[in-house]
Amino acid sequence: MAMPEAKDDYHAVRRQAGLAALKDRFHNRFSQAPAVREQHAHTTTWHANQPPDAVVFAQDEDDIVAIVNICAEHGLPIVPFGAGTSLEGQVNAPFGGVSIDMSEMNKVIRVSPEDLDCTVQPGITRKQLNTYLRDTGLFFPIDPGADASLGGMASTRASGTNAVRYGTMKDNVLSLRAVMADGSVMTTARRARKTSAGYDLTRLLIGSEGTLGIITELTLKLHGIPESVAGGVCPFTTIENACNAVIMTIQSGIPIARIELLDVAQVKACNAYSKLDLEEVPMLFVEFNGTEAGVAEQAALFGEIAESFEGGPFKWESEPEKRNALWQARHDAYWAALQLRPGAKGIATDVCVPVSRLAECITETIADVEACGFLAPIVGHVGDGNFHVLPLVDMDSAAEVEAVEGFLSRLAERALRMDGTCTGEHGVGQGKGKYLPKELGDPAVAAMIAIKKALDPENILNPGKIFPSGYAAGEPVIA
Amino acid sequence: MAMPEAKDDYHAVRRQAGLAALKDRFHNRFSQAPAVREQHAHTTTWHANQPPDAVVFAQDEDDIVAIVNICAEHGLPIVPFGAGTSLEGQVNAPFGGVSIDMSEMNKVIRVSPEDLDCTVQPGITRKQLNTYLRDTGLFFPIDPGADASLGGMASTRASGTNAVRYGTMKDNVLSLRAVMADGSVMTTARRARKTSAGYDLTRLLIGSEGTLGIITELTLKLHGIPESVAGGVCPFTTIENACNAVIMTIQSGIPIARIELLDVAQVKACNAYSKLDLEEVPMLFVEFNGTEAGVAEQAALFGEIAESFEGGPFKWESEPEKRNALWQARHDAYWAALQLRPGAKGIATDVCVPVSRLAECITETIADVEACGFLAPIVGHVGDGNFHVLPLVDMDSAAEVEAVEGFLSRLAERALRMDGTCTGEHGVGQGKGKYLPKELGDPAVAAMIAIKKALDPENILNPGKIFPSGYAAGEPVIA
Question: Least packed by Cβ within 10 Å: which of A437, B66, B234, B374?
Answer without folding.
Answer: A437
